[in-house]
Structure formats: C-alpha cells, structure tokens
Amino acid sequence: MREQFRSDMSEVQDDVVDIFRELLNTTKLAVNALIKGDEVVAQEIIDDDDRFDALTLEVEERVIELIATQFPVARDLRFLQSMAFIAMYQERIGDYTTTIARAARRSADKPVPQPLIDLIRAQASLVYRVMDAAREALENRDLELALKLPELDEPVDSLNKQFYRELGRLTDEDEIEAASKMVMSARALERIADYCVDTGERLAYFLTGERALLEAAEAEVEPQKII
Fold it and tell me: Would you say domain 2-220 falls under CATH 1.20.58.220?
C-alpha cells in the first residue's frame, strides 16, 4: 500500500515537472509570436490555455485525493501541499503566457521600436533561464538551485524598468500603442519569473520544513543538494 503511495507521489511530481517543460516551450512561442507579429501562433496559444488549466487542476485534484485517502504526515504532507501550490503557480504562469499571446495578436502589423524588441528578447532569455532552473530544482529536489532563484530573477526586474523608460521617449501614436503591448508583455514575463521564485520557496519548504521566505531560507539553511 505504501509502495503505491510512493509511486503516486512520484507521478504527481513528474506531472508537475512536465507542465513546467510545456510552459517553457509555450512561453518561447508566445514571445516569438510577439516579436514576429505572428497572429496564427498567438491564437493557438490563446486557445491552448484551457488545456493548461485542466492539467494543473488535475494535479490539485490528485493531491486532494491522496491526502484524503492516505493521511500523509510530516514530509509527505509538505510534499503534497507544495505540489498543489506549485500547480497553482503554473496555472497563473499559463495565464501570463496567454497575456503575451494576446499582446502579440493585438500588436501585429504595428510598428514596434527596435530597442523594445531587443529588450523583450533579452528579458525573455533571462526568464527562460529562471523557468528552466525552477523545473530542474523541482525535478532533482535541489535545494541549492532553489535558493539561487531570487538571484536569477533580479536581472529580469531590472530590465523591466527599462521598458518604461523607453516608452517615455516615444512620441508617435502608432509606436506608443504597439510599445504599450510590449510593456504589458514585459510585465507578464516578470510575473512568470516571480512565480518560478515562488516555486523555489515551496520546494525549500518541502525539503527543510521551514516556512521562511526564500531569501530568509537562503540565510538560515546551508545550501545543499537533497535527493
């Protein structure tokens, strides 16, 4: 019976890791659609949002079922709670990816200043790194990597501020309209990275039992890889 429970928990973790992989791929597609003005790909991403909602809801329902039927305690209970929280973060990441796709659809065929395109590329590249690190930390239950996520997120926040400075320099109405969609997308990317940091916080809580914020956990817990 307990062997089946362990297998079920492993499947939950595998599902959450797989969702992260899909979200990373979809985020890349959304950003590319934004840069290229690809309305077709943008609409495909928008239409696919319900599937991500269903995937994350399935994880939450599986967690509830395991808690209700297996009565987990201590580390097992922390694990299941953390998977449910991370699934919720993933659902919101999916929503922000859809926000980028909607911006891509609305700004297609409108002139976008090259500096903003360069900024969105740079910011997206940093966000991909944060997303993949969150996925890897979760897959390997790597506390050290989880504790590095805030550090990886800092450059994302810095780049986001540059969008507003570039927007303030524009005077052409068409450029301002398209640029506003870029700024909206930059904000969405920033929030995606933030939810990855939240994922690291939940992972750190599962591994250590500490409820401190990730920055506090970094100071209190000596980084180490826990298998």
Answer: yes
Residues 106-120: what's their mean pLDDT?
83
Residue with tokens 């890349």: 28
Question: What pLDDT score does 65 carry?
Answer: 95
Distance CA 181, CA 164 (A): 12
Contact 93, 195 (CB under 8 A): yes
**CB contact at 8 A, 134 and 199:** yes
Domain boundaries, given as residue ranges, for the chain: 2-220
Q: Which residues of 132-163 are buried (b: 16+ CB within 10 A; e: fewer)?
A: ebbbebbbebbbebbbbbbebbebbeebbeeb
pLDDT bracket for residue 173 (50, 70, 90):
low
Residue 186 to residues 39, 46, 108, 197, 224, Cα–Cα distance (Å): 18, 18, 16, 17, 33
Q: Is-contact 130 196, C-beta < 8 A?
A: yes
Residue 219 is encoded by which pair of tokens?
């100071």
- In sequence order, the β-bridge partners of residue 89 are none
- Model pLDDT for residues 40-88, shown as the tens digit of each residue: 999 999 999 999 999 999 999 999 999 999 999 889 999 999 999 999 9
